[in-house]
Amino acid sequence: MQQISQRLADLVARGRDVVVLTGAGMSAESGVATFRGAGGLWENEPVERVATPEGFAHDPLRVWRFYEARRQQIAGVAPHAGHRALADYAARHPGIVTVTQNIDGLHQAAGVEEVIELHGSLMRVRCTRDGGAREDRRVPFPALPPRCDCGAMLRPDVVWFGEALPEAAFARAHDASRRAALFLVIGTSALVYPAAGLPAVASAAGAWVVEINPEPTPISDQVDEVLRGPAGAILPALLGAVPTPDR
Ligand code: BV8
Q1: Distance (Å, whole) CA 76 – CA 244
Q2: Is the distance from the beta carbon of residue 132 to the nearest atom of ligand 1 less than 6 Å?
Q3: What is the residue with the minimal CA distance to atom 30 of ligand 1?
Q4: Which residue's alpha carbon is at the smallest distance from atom 33 of ligand 1?
Q5: Which class for 225: exposed (0-12), middle (13-18), buried (19 or more C-beta within 10 A)?
Q6: What are the catalytic residues?
Q7: Residue ranges of domains in the chain
Q8: 29 Cβ inside 6 Å of ligand 1
C-alpha cells in the first residue's frame, strides 16, 4: 500500500471518533455500477427521468424499471474485501460511525451493525398514499409498478433530487462529522449535497480528512490526505487483516 502519514496511522490505531462516508465507488468492486463516469447508471437513464419526483410522476413504470434492474443486480452481489475490512474494524472499534449514500445494503451485508443511510434503501418501498415505508425484498416484483395492500402505487424508499434527506439520519451524520477525529471519504464523486458537504464539516471541526478514490474529485485538494486507489485494496491494508468471508 502507498505510504500513509503517521497521523493517519495513529488515528486508525486509536479507533475513536472515526467517521466513514461512502459513495457508489465503495460498491464498484462488488460489481455494482457507479452513477457517473464510463458505463455509469446515469449514462443511459438521465437523472431527471429516473431519480426525481417529477420523473416518477411522469412515468412511474420507467422509474420502476430502473430500480427493479438495480434490485435484481444487488440480489446477486456480495460485499468485497473493503466492505469486510470496514465491518471488521467497526466490530473492533464500536465508536466508528458508518455513513453511506449507497442504497445497496452492502455495508450491512458485510456485518456493519449500524449504517446511516442518507439516500434510503433499494430494498425498502414506500406507499404513495400514506407514506408508510417497509422492507420488500421480492425480486422481481410480481408486477410493475408494485402496489401497496391499500391499492396505491408503491415508490422506492430512496431520496430523489429535490427531496429532503431523512432528517434524523442527516442530523446524526452531521453531528458525528462535527465530532470526528478521523473522517474517511470513500468512493464518492463528492458532487451531491448535502452529503458532499460532510467532509468540510469534519475538517472545520479539526478532523483529519482522508479521501480514498482512484480518481481526483472536487474535494481532493481540500482534504488532508489522499489515498489514490480502489477501496477494495486500500481498506484491508489500512484497517488491518481482512476476516474470511464466512463471518
Ligand atoms: C436536497 C437517488 C433539499 C437514490 C441520489 C446544496 C445543498 C443542498 C442541496 C443541493 C445543493 N446544491 C445542489 C443541490 C441539489 C441536489 C444536488 O446535490 N445536486 C448536485 C448534482 C449539484 N441535492 C439534492 O437534491 C438532495 N436533496 O438537498 O433537498 C431539500 C430540503 C428540504 C426540503 C426539500 C428539499 C438529494 C440528493 C440525493 C439525490 N439522490 N440518488 C439512488 O438512486 O441511488 S444521488 C446519487 O448520487 C446517489 O444517491 C449517489 O449516492 C450520489 C452520489 O454519487 P456517488 O455515490 O458519489 O457516485 P458517483 O458515481 O458519482 O461517483 C463514484 C465515485 O467512486 C467516483 O469518484 C469514482 O472515482 C469512485 N470509484 C470508482 N471505483 C472505485 C471508486 N472509489 C473507490 N474504490 C473504487 N473501486
Answers
A1: 19
A2: no
A3: 164
A4: 164
A5: middle
A6: 119
A7: 1-32+78-119+165-247, 34-76+122-158
A8: yes
Question: CA-to-CA distance for 220 and 206, rounded, in angstroms?
Answer: 17
The letter for the amino acid at 30 is: S
Query: Do 86 and 112 touch, CB atoms closer than 8 A?
Result: yes
CATH architecture of 34-76+122-158: 2-Layer Sandwich (3.30)
Q: Whose CA is nearest to atom 10 of ligand 1?
A: 193
Indicate the helix (H) or strand (E) that contains 106.
Answer: helix 106-109
* 15-28: pLDDT as tens digits: 999 999 999 999 99
In which band, very low, low, confident or very high, does the pLDDT at 246 lie, cut at 50, 70 and 90? low
User: Quick check: CB of 99 below 6 Å from ligand 1?
Assistant: no
Cβ of 40 closer than 6 Å to ligand 1, yes or no, is: yes
| 53: Cα within 13 Å, side-chain hemisphere | 6
Best residue among 27, 35, 121, 220 to mutate for probing ligand 1, ranked by most atoms within 8 Å of CB: 35
Q: Is 108 in the pocket of ligand 1 (CB under 6 A)?
A: no
What is the identity of the amino acid at 131? G
Assess whether the region 1-32+78-119+165-247 and the region 34-76+122-158 belong to the same CATH fold. Answer: no
> Tens digits of per-residue pLDDT, 25-81?
999 999 998 888 777 888 788 888 899 999 999 999 999 999 999 999 999 999 999
Give rounded-to-5 percent helix, strand, coil for the chain. Answer: 35, 15, 45
CATH dotted code for 1-32+78-119+165-247? 3.40.50.1220
CA 192 to ligand 1 center in whole angstroms: 3
